[in-house]
Design brief:
The structure is a homotetramer. Chain A has a single domain, classed as Transcriptional coactivator/pterin dehydratase (Gyrase A, domain 2, 2-Layer Sandwich). Chain A is built from three helices and four strands; from the N terminus they run αββαββα. The N and C termini of chain A lie far apart (28 Å). In chain A, helix 2 packs antiparallel against helix 3. A four-stranded antiparallel beta sheet of chain A has the order 1-2-4-3. Chain A is an alpha+beta fold. Helices cover 42% and strands 22% of the residues of chain A. At the A-D interface, helix 2 and strand 3 of A face helix 2 and strand 3 of D. Strand 3 of chain A pairs antiparallel with strand 3 of chain D, so a sheet runs across the interface.
């Protein structure tokens, strides 16, 4: 799977307004009311990751979680990351 | 929210072939390869429960999980349970 | 690992006042304030299970979780179950 | 709760060889065999956090998790963080 060109990625992110480019990855910060809710969401994202065999890095804080997708083999963002981002959006 | 009549429930379950009636509830047994995968799914179902504020009972075993929805206030199965069942199906 | 005799188990359970015999297993019901807290505990018990490679059955409800240990190979309760019960107690 | 002095913290970390100072926090990187195991541990740490009402930031990767404790009110590392670090160590 080839990484998306800069142009293709810019175009794609127009439809993912909550996600932004961050180096070779795309990331979104999700907000929650407390650590319980944050962890519950982290686990839901992890389930998607297991299912798709595509695993985000996550930064977990008290009431927020940054989810970051990148396709390491491709050295950038692929359609696999975009699909994963959409699936994570659908959880919230 | 009123509970579904026997007839309505029977009809509804035709579209949820994995779910069966169990007293005042509907339940489905999900199968997994090991405890890790089972727990990951249990957490994903829990996320849906938090979001919908509608919480299933679950029986967790090594490689299976029984998910059971019922609307206690209505003393039976309501459309809320049917929606939750569909959402759980969509996770797998 | 051989299963504990009835006598040995009765003796052992004197030191585990929250646990009771349930057929070939020992079980304890843990209580929580809501589904978030219940699930958080369920996950902590699961971590112990992964670590010890000894996995309880659990019944998860809104504000309680029944944890049940048994050693299937031995057809009853062994010291492995007793150790697991102590470790679960230490979490709460 | 007052933050530990530089000297006290340096002394304390001698007994927590896996933890290192990182700005106003202490952190440890835990390693795992895959995402399932990583997430299971993350959940166990979260349980401790709920119980102690003291919540680490965590960075979750495929087979590692960075756990970071700091006491924001004190603007640094307190004995509360040290206790939390010891409890996390005990999980692994």
């Amino acid at each position: 799977m080839a990484k998306l060109s800069d142009e293709a990625l810019t175009q794609t992110l127009k439809n993912l307004p909550e996600w932004k480019r961050q180096g070779d990855a795309i990331s979104r910060t999700f907000s929650f009311k407390n650590y319980y809710e944050t962890m519950a969401f982290v686990n839901a994202v992890a389930w998607l990751a297991h299912k798709a065999d595509h695993h985000p890095d996550m930064e977990v804080g008290y009431n927020r979680c940054v989810v970051r997708y990148s396709t390491h083999d491709a050295g950038g963002v692929t359609t696999k990351d975009v699909e994963a981002a959409k699936a994570a959006d659908a959880l919230k």
